[in-house]
Design goal:
The chain is mainly alpha-helical and 227 residues long. Helix content is 65%, strand content 0%.
Amino acid sequence: FSHSFFCVNCSLLLLNVCNLLSLLIIIMPSFFASIEHPFSAVESADQSTPAAPFLDACADIVPFFDTLGKAFFAVKSDISGNITKLRGKLEKNPELDTLQKMVQSEIDAKTTTSKGSATDALMWLKRALSFMEEFLSLVSKGEQDIKKAATSAYEATLKQYHGFMVKKVFGVAMMAVPKWDGFIKACRGDSEDDEATIVQQISEFVTSFSTHLNVLKEFYDSKSLSN
């Protein structure tokens, strides 16, 4: 066999190996493009929020707080804890398949303020999600100062419900949030999405996210419950 024969075959082999490797390399989508259970897929009817799909969607966005730094671990923990409580309520009472039914059952039983109530868990979950909604809304509208956006969102949502010490903890957390480039990089992950695409994904997320939060806020208002 000639030298050129071996060279051609080696080249073909190398090409096949490269093609195989390209198939094995998976480009992961960005955070907001990779949510397995998006809020846009949660189908609400007659102002009722299906419990299981909504809680699955909430669980999927918990890792978002990693983009704001380790100081937001407490928020992640609080959200996860309240999701667990609500899932536990649903597991024990599968007939309470909407969040409104869960709360209404406690209103009827006069247990809304009882320790570990679904009403209380949903209230705090809603409050934490409202912080995320406000923060992302500011970002989607062009605010690139992440510290300013996070501070404004906290003051508009959670701050009024926190005591002195918790406010101090959040004050420290705000000092540790990343700059704009760091935030975009964290949201991008291993994807190739550019900054404009990431912001557009955030805007689309906020639209569907806000729809469900507004339904819950209106329900709590209609029942004269703390929002």
